[in-house]
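**User:** My hope is that you can spare some time for a protein that puzzles me. I have put the entry right below:
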Amino acid sequence: MVPVYMAFPDGVFHYVCRECTLVCCFRSDQFDGGFDGEIKTLVRLYPALELVATRRRGNVTTFSTPSGRCYFLGGDSLCAIEKEHGKETKPTACSIFPFNHFSRIGKTIAVSPNFLCPLGVKVPPRPGQVEGTHSKVEASLRRSPYLDDSYLSGFPRLAISAEQSPASVLARETAFRDDCSLALGERTFADTVRGASSDPGGFESFVERAAALLDLDASSSPPERDGTDDLLLALAPTLRLNLLHLSSEAILRALRLSELLLRRVIEIPKSLSMPAGPADISAPKGAYEVLGQVGPALRLLARSDDRIEMPVNAVKKIPPFGEPEMTFAAFKLLRASGNSARLIDTLEDATALLPSLSNRMAFLVEMGTHIEAALLKKVKRHASRREELSV
C-alpha cells in the first residue's frame, strides 16, 4: 500500500456543505474521477458528459465544467448527483474534497486540506465525529484512483533539507502534528513551538531579532491562550509542508513569525468592527491565504541565521522594483551573500535603507522568492542524486 501522511490534526477540521455560502462548485472549472468506477456510472446516466472529457491519466478522467457553475449544482447549492444517485456516484474529486491537496515526501503521499473550503476548527478535536477524521479521509482516498501508479507521479515532490531523509522528516512531522493535537484547547501556540526547539532560549532571542525587521514585538503575544492559538495549531502541520527544505529550527522560527504577523494583521478587520465570516483571516481559509502570500519573507527571515551562497548571476536578476532604494538594498544583500556574514546581519544592513515598513515587507517577500528559487535548485539537485544512489 502507498503510505499516507495526514498533514493536519486528527478530528479538528469540519465542514457542512448545507451551511456553506462559499460554494466550491462555483469556483472550479473541472472535476475528475475513476473511469472504471463512478465515471462509468455518470456517463451512462449523462451521455453528453463524454463530450467534455479533457484529460486521461491512467484510470483518472477529467471533465471540464462552465467556469462559475458545475453542471450538477442544484438551485439549492447542493450536488444533484448526490441527492439523486447517492454520494458514491459523485466524482472522486468532489467526494474527497476538501482533503484533496496531495504532495510527496519520498514515497509517502502527504494529504492536506484545500482551503478553498471554509473549514471550521473543532476544539477539542473530535476524531470520528467530523469530516476531517484521518481514518475517514484515508479510506476515501484508498477507494479512489489517486493512489494508482499512473497518477502518483503527478503529485509534486516536496523539497526537504539536505540533512534529513524522507523517513526522518515524516517522523518529525508526525510528532509535531500530534503535539499540536494535544495542545489544542490546552497550550499556546508559542509554547508549543518553543517546546519543540532544541534551544528555546536561542530560539526566542533569534525570533526577537528577525521580528524587529517587520516592526513586530516578539513579546506581544497575549499571556492567555485564545482562538488564534487553536487556529495556528490546526494550521501548523499544513504550513510546515512549505518549510521542509529549511532546518528544523528554521521551520519553528517561521511558524513563530507567522503567529506574530497574523495576530497583527487580524487587528485590521477588528478595528473596522467587521463581523467574522468563514473567509475571515481569523478562520483557517483566510489565515492560510495571508500566511501563504507573505511566506517567502517569513522563510527568508527564518533561515537568516544561515550563511548562504548565491549564484554569480543572481545579482543580474534582481526584481524590477522600480524604486532606487529597494534596488540598491537588493544589490547590497546579494553581494554580501558570498561573504562569511550571517544572513540576518546582511538583512539588517540592507533593510536599514528602507524606513517604510511596506517597502521593507515587499522587499523581503520578493527577495525571499528570488533567493529561495536559487537555493531550492541546489536542494532538488541533492535530492535527485540521493534518489539515484538509493535505487
